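Predict the structure of Glycosyltransferase family 2 protein.
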Amino acid sequence: MLLSVIIPTYNPNPERLSRVLEALRDQSLGPQHWQLVIVDNNSSNGVLGHMDLSWHPNHQIVAEKKQGLTFGRIAGFRRALGDVLVLVDDDNVLARDYLSLVTTYFSRDPALGSAGGRITASFDGYQPQEWTRPFWNMLAIRDPGNRDLAASSLSGGYPAFAPVGAGMAVRKALVDGYIREVSDAPGAITDRTGNSLASGGDNEINIWVLKQGYKTAYFPKLSIRHIIPASRLEKGYLARLNYESTRSWAELLRRYDLCPWDTVPGWSVGLRKIKSWFVFAAWRSPSGYVKWRGACGLYEGLIKKPD
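Done. Here is the predicted structure for Glycosyltransferase family 2 protein.
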């Protein structure tokens, strides 16, 4: 089975990207067995022009001018030759056996559509403040436990353990239909776009997988270290992330009739935000402020659209 590793990137940090590529170079599955596709999503810092990829016999850098992580992923999907595609962010350091394990899981289960694993944080050179811990999941730091988990439908809602974009593996045969789905949909989820912190593109892939009758799964043996710079644990960044990701999450769930919350009239949103300011005591602590911004994003994502 041939894999394709897809790395969409926008103005990557050279040190972090080098670590990502070093981990790929060190994979137990030799580079002759997988394809490397790096998608330059309209970068302007010139970092990709200085990356040494001579170690990989089947690599390419693809330019995608249309801004947005979803568009970057789709550009990579279209160039991919593998039966299974592995999404890697430009700050994801894969464990040495990651690609070989992905090959094993997808080879032995034809019904497996998407999969991911355990993601731990790499806080290099600093110690994060304790108040930030409840928000680490927003930074794609996740540990659903030590057991394999799988879901084959959306009957119980969106599976909490479903893979996120960091390290997600997905069957290529399913991606072709997903591309048509999001390309034709008005107001498609674009995910990260420039400085926007909206999200949901990876969740939409899982929803598509499940709607096609395939399984999505979590395998704890799949391991990634996610490099988290100190700036992503600052109050302002976390507040903006909570606001934008929560709003886009509500919009995505509504699109697929999976939303557990009722819609709200637009006129009420301002009042709800004021009430939440006091509920979360947003003035008292960074944690309260970040939670309040998440509530604001939720209300905006639930605004009832006119008939």
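Residues 3-228 form a domain with the Spore Coat Polysaccharide Biosynthesis Protein SpsA; Chain A fold (CATH 3.90.550.10).
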